[in-house]
Amino acid sequence: MFTSVLMIEKPLVSADVDLVTTLHGEEEVSFVVLMQPRGDQDRLLRALDDVALGELVDAVQEGDEPEGEEALPPARLALEHSLRSLRDAGAEAVGQIIEHHPLDLLTSVVEQTGADEVIVLTAPHLVEEFFHRDWASRARHKVGVPVLKLFAHSD
To answer: Would you say residue 93 has pLDDT above 60?
Structure first.
């Protein structure tokens, strides 16, 4: 069985589930999903990304999202939805919320599970990607397995 660690920041939509569950053809796949709640630490970068992508309404609404402890309940729901969707598609899936140090947790999960790859499935983060500070760029130097960067679909 092929094991993928899947890093996400929002619930998977059906197109995302189809994409990640068919990447390896007919081979059985299991997923360890790491859900990063969106928080205050990256609000400015998200607003800059929204402006760069021409999504001005989203840039203005960045202050309306829950932060800190308030972000955990929606993140748990998003994780549960994503795990259910992966299982419904025939994959094995477990997961957890990332509360601190995402790349350290990613590295330890890859080691503990013997993962074959990491898939980072997020919205475009133009500023972070330009400076190679996005999860995928930083993970490539830490985890010791291939890291695939994919852009998440919208609802």
So the answer is: yes
Q: Which phi and psi angles does 51 have, rounded to 5°?
A: -65, -45
Residues 6+ apart with CB under 8 A from 132: 138
Radius of gyration of the chain (CA): 15
Q: Is 44 helix (H, G, I), strand (E, B) or coil?
A: helix
Q: Tokens 């001005």 label which residue?
A: 56
3-state secondary structure of 151: strand
Do residues 97 and 35 touch, judged by C-beta distance below 8 A? Answer: yes
For the stretch 5-58, pLDDT in tens is 999 988 999 999 999 999 998 899 999 999 988 654 465 455 555 555 555 445
83: left (phi over 0), alpha (psi -120 to 50) or beta: alpha
Q: Find where tokens 């360890």 sit.
A: 32
SS3 118: strand
Report the predicted TM-score, pTM, of the whole model to 2 decimal places.
Answer: 0.79
6-24 burial code (b ≥16 CB/10 A, e <16): bbbbbbbbeebbebbbeee
